[in-house]
Amino acid sequence: MSETNTDEETGKIVVGTFLTLDGVMQAPGGPEEDRDGGFEHGGWSVNYWDEKMGEVMDDQFAETDALLLGRKTYEIFAAHWPNVDAEGDPMTEKLNNMPKYVASRTLDAVEWNNSTLLSGDVAEAIEDLKDERGDVIMVQGSHDLIQTLLAHDLVDEFWLWIFPLVLGDGKRLFEGGTIPAALVLTTAETSSTGVQMLRFDRAGEIDYGSFAVDDETE
């Protein structure tokens, strides 16, 4: 079990996502990654990478016990990572061997090593998965799956890498079904290229207030 998981009974769903300043998460890794909606900005994260980001990524995957993926992200990962030489690369080795759970209504089978296709209602299957595993399950990419998780209040932490650019259009992390919730910043690091690597925990309900000045005159 990962050291970051303090709950011995229930697992933790972590959303790990690359974002632009205007909240776009679509196709950070390449032009052909996801052209849905005519998206033309694929590959926007690539030229910001530095050594520190690689170190942080290694650390995050070291804390992760399993992956939870939607169909599109699973197919991208499954076509790439098994073909990468894992010698001397602990992250590649871990990705290829760690448990991977796939939420899809269209796939009949998943062939990447140690992958399992979730069946039935997605939200219920993920709640069961959290109970069964009791450890840290990270969601990578998987925009549509994340929207389901947000709508069912199933996300426990956000590990967000915010890149210093705006795109104006594209799939955003927080879409219309997000349930309001307070968060607390637990970690903040910055790359040499200005990428903010932030971690947020859940912090209960939002505590609303007002800056309006009370009218004390009669």
Structure explained in plain terms:
This protein has 218 residues and is of the alpha/beta class. The protein contains 5 helices and 8 strands, in the order βαβααββαβαβββ. Strands 4-3-2-5-1-6-8-7 form an 8-stranded mixed sheet, sandwiched between helices. A hairpin with a 5-residue loop joins strand 7 (183-190) and strand 8. Helix 1 (51-63) packs parallel to helix 3 (90-97). It is globular. It starts with 11 loop residues before the first strand and ends in a 16-residue tail after the last strand. Mean pLDDT is 91; it is low at 1-7.
How large is the radius of gyration? 19 Å
Helical amount:
10-25%
Low-confidence stretches: 1-7
The largest beta-sheet arranges its strands as: 4-3-2-5-1-6-8-7
| Broad structural category | alpha/beta
Strand count, sense and barrel status of the largest sheet are: 8 strands, mixed
Strand share of the residues?
Answer: 15-25%
- Overall body shape: globular
The count of DSSP E runs of length 2 or more, i.e. the number of strands, is: 8
Number of helices: 5
Order of helices and strands: EHEHHEEHEHEEE
Mean pLDDT over all positions: 91
Termini Cα gap: 62 Å
